[in-house]
Automatic annotation (TrEMBL):
HAMAP family: Chorismate_synth. NADP(+) binds at residue 41. This reaction introduces a second double bond into the aromatic ring system. This is Chorismate synthase. FMN binds at residues 121-123, 286, 301-305, 327. GO terms for molecular function: chorismate synthase activity; FMN binding. It comes from Thermoflexus hugenholtzii JAD2. GO terms for biological process: amino acid biosynthetic process; aromatic amino acid family biosynthetic process; chorismate biosynthetic process. Reduced FMN (FMNH(2)). Homotetramer. It holds the Pfam family Chorismate_synt.
Length: 390
């Protein structure tokens, strides 16, 4: 896989860093667009007090010269403003694990007596670095007309009812203007009430996000090997986001309850085009993109750190006790939209580069054009220039 990235950094350490390797040379980089994505990740009802402290901005340390990628690894850094409060301070050890967070599992695995090192790295603070990486991937995808967006479809028990006639671009736009990023404004009001009630009642909520990629050409990913399937690569990437407990492609779990004649996307011929009138598959068949929008749904569990204490055991004494509260988000769902988009953008940029090859953006674009033509030669009916490409 041609594109890869690593992140490092603790939640309350000096900074988060990432290295993105494999983007071709010559891609114009818009740093402010990266910062806008970082700001989006900080916004949303249900965010805790930490988001008032941070003001995430990216510093590009390498791989970009005079506003364009050089082809070298891109190193980037995002400061943790909260670090100033912890620097040089003696912090009392944390010995009571929170059910649902990494605390106990990491203590067992790494032998931590103080639970802080586990939470420092498991914390979703790390996703700021992913969003910066994803913003660069989005810029690469945009050069090929591919966009990635998302919106919230469920918070706690409240579900959005979105008309199929509401275009994806309109959903993205409405979501961006909404405090819980839900394009169904009636459901949004009930979602807001649910988040506020959970906060009042010293509790937390999860929910579901739908991520969508538009303009993805057919032929990304492959059926020939398990780790080349685009669906599997998306599920891995999305499933790696902290608190994500389920990922569906297309209609996912709902398909399991249907008959085969009602679960797929029949193929019709309209003039010299082959068309689908549905997209239950979510744009991927056999691990290969089919030219339809790629749709992934991500289920996020409620936050583990609750103001209401939960039963636990103090590992320093072995005595039963209750969890303690320092600070936390209440509902991470609206804030997680840009993270979902970032992980989708990374996977799609990787799969596109794999398809195109090329050391420079120009080479990639020439190949993209050539592929468009060649694909048509191979697969078109009656020589139509629009059989499969969106
Ligand atoms: C955007 C976002 C914000 C989060 N904020 C918190 C938080 O404030 N408190 C908390 O306990 N968990 C929070 N989480 C979830 C934890 O990071 C996650 O539950 C923990 O790392 C354990 O991993 P797991 O839930 O995947 O098992 C957040 C997750 C996301 C995506
Ligand atoms: C810092 C971020 O989210 C954090 C994710 C998080 C967790 O346990 O995942 C716990 C909280 O950390 P703190 O206790 O420092 O407030 C969140 O604020 C962020 O998203 O940038």
């Amino acid at each position: 896989m041609p594109l890869r990235f690593l992140t490092a950094g603790e939640s309350h350490g000096p900074a988060l860093v990432a290295i993105l390797e494999g983007l071709p040379a010559g891609l114009p980089v818009d740093v402010e667009a990266v910062n806008r994505e970082l700001a989006r990740r900080q916004r949303g009802l249900g965010a805790g007090p930490r988001m008032k402290i941070e003001e995430d901005r990216v510093v590009l340390l390498s791989g970009v010269l005079e506003g364009r990628t050089t082809g070298a690894p891109i190193a980037l850094q995002i400061e943790n403003r909260d670090h100033a409060k912890w620097r040089g301070r003696a912090v009392a050890p944390m010995t009571v694990p929170r059910p649902g967070h990494v605390d106990l599992a990491a203590a067992v695995k790494y032998g931590y007596r103080d639970l802080r090192p586990g939470l420092e790295r498991a914390s979703a603070r790390e996703t700021a670095a992913r969003v910066a990486v994803g913003a660069l991937c989005k810029q690469f995808l945009k050069a090929f007309g591919i966009t990635v967006g998302s919106y919230v479809v469920q918070i706690g028990p409240v579900r959005a009812a979105l008309s199929e006639d509401l275009p994806y671009e309109a959903r993205f736009e409405r979501a961006e203007a909404d405090p819980v990023r839900c394009p169904d404004l009636e459901a949004s009001a009930r979602m807001r009430a649910a988040v506020e009630a959970a906060m009042q009642e010293r509790d937390t909520l999860g929910g579901v996000i739908e991520g969508v990629a538009l303009g993805v050409p057919p032929g990304l990913g492959s059926h020939v090997h398990w780790d080349r399937r685009l669906s599997a690569r998306l599920m891995m990437a999305l499933g790696s986001i902290p608190a994500v407990k389920g990922v569906e492609i297309g209609e996912g779990f709902a398909l399991a309850a249907r008959r085969g004649t009602e679960a797929h996307d029949p193929i019709f011929r309209e003039g010299d085009r082959l068309v689908r009138r549905t997209n239950r598959a979510g744009g991927i068949e056999g691990g290969i993109s089919n030219g339809a929008p790629i749709v992934a749904r991500v289920a996020i569990k409620p936050i583990a750190t609750t103001l209401t204490p939960q039963p636990s055991v103090d590992l320093s004494t072995g005595q039963p006790t209750e969890t303690r509260y320092e600070r936390s988000d209440f509902c991470p769902v609206p804030r997680a939209c840009p993270i979902v988009e970032a992980m989708m953008a990374f996977v799609l940029a990787d799969a596109l580069l794999e398809k195109l090859g090329g050391d420079t953006l120009e080479e990639c674009q020439a190949r993209f054009e050539a592929l468009r033509q060649a694909r048509l030669g191979d697969l078109s009916i009656d020589g139509s220039p629009h059989v499969f490409w969106p």
